[in-house]
What we know:
Blueprint (H helix, E strand, L loop, with lengths): L26 E5 L3 H10 L5 E5 L6 H4 L4 E7 L5 H14 L5 E5 L4 H9 L4 E4 L4 H15 L1
Parallel strand pairs: 1-2, 1-3, 3-4, 4-5
Amino acid sequence: MRSSSGKAESGEPDQRLVGIGYAPAPTLLLLSADQALADFVASAVQPPWTFAHQPAAYTGPAVFARPNVQLVVLDDEAIERSERGSLLTRIRRYLPTTPLLYIAATHNEANERQARTNGAHYYTSKPISLEHFGYVLQSFLRAQK
């Protein structure tokens, strides 16, 4: 027997609905305290994508449990240097196949090595060219559809 929520009494999804628009929209998750960057990224995200912004340093499991996160943008400016490695590890633990775009507050070889070693698909440092970053962002959004 089915409920009005599209689930069987067992709680399993109604297989007739799977694959026909029942899945949540893909989400871009931005981890950044930079409001100007957040505004820019939000303006670049168009349907069917949704935008989720986590401005605080809290990055526990609930942050990564959002439905259908398909792209993560991490700005490390407000994250203590000593916490960056563990944050990257958490991203990989909870979102192992999700592309990661990494924006470093300042460039140095250690930052870049740490980002790339932990699976960053794109690395840049501030100040960034919003025009260029917009092109990069759009290419990742298109590739993840």
